[in-house]
Design goal:
single chain, alpha+beta, 4 helices, seven-stranded antiparallel sheet, elongated
Length: 184
């Protein structure tokens, strides 16, 4: 084999080994591992689940065989509804001139976008309950920051417009926000 081919294959092997080691270190230092589901017709050609190690430095996408190796197969099957230690809330930033519509009778927070635009939230799981002050502040801060960055709207109906829809998770003392399949 020519020398350049040997160097190429050696370089590829070293790169793969470094990436696997980085993922393993991320799994070992993670405060939790998040599984993001890609289901529905729009994701027909996408893998059904992606796994992310949530570390103090940020999130790192990890391979499912590594998650199975470190945490076991049973942990990979759990969802947010199976884990009583994780709370989750769903939030929508809705402009409603009339203040009426499906889901607009629940709790909400005022926003700086005018009296007609409010942030509506609700528990996503049975164990979630009402969000505390820290969760409400995170919901409000994310809506205020992100609304200006998102073009268009999520849905319209009954004379109302929804600009954002996202999930906020509490796992232990950490908050994780999921917006458009990205974790923050």
């Amino acid at each position: 084999m020519k020398l350049w081919k040997k160097r190429l294959f050696s370089g590829l092997g070293i790169t793969a080994a470094v990436l696997l080691l980085w993922q393993l270190l991320s799994l070992w230092s993670a405060f939790c591992v998040a599984r993001v589901a890609y289901t529905g017709l729009q994701n027909m050609f996408h893998v059904p689940y992606e796994y992310y190690a949530l570390t103090p430095a940020g999130s790192v996408r990890v391979l499912s065989p590594l998650v199975r190796l470190v945490y076991g197969g049973e942990a990979m099957e759990k969802g947010v509804f199976d884990d009583p230690s994780t709370q989750c809330w769903y939030a929508e930033l809705v402009e409603s001139p009339t203040g009426e519509g499906i889901g607009l009778d629940g709790p909400s927070l005022p926003t700086s976008f005018g009296a007609d635009t409010r942030l509506y939230y609700q528990p996503w799981t049975r164990e979630s309950g009402e969000p505390g002050a820290e969760e409400l502040a995170a919901l409000s801060a994310w809506a205020e920051k992100t609304h200006r960055e998102v073009a268009g709207w999520t849905w319209q109906g009954e004379g109302n417009t929804c600009y954002l829809a996202f999930l906020l998770y509490r796992h232990g003392d950490r908050l994780v926000l999921e917006f458009e399949k990205d974790l923050y």
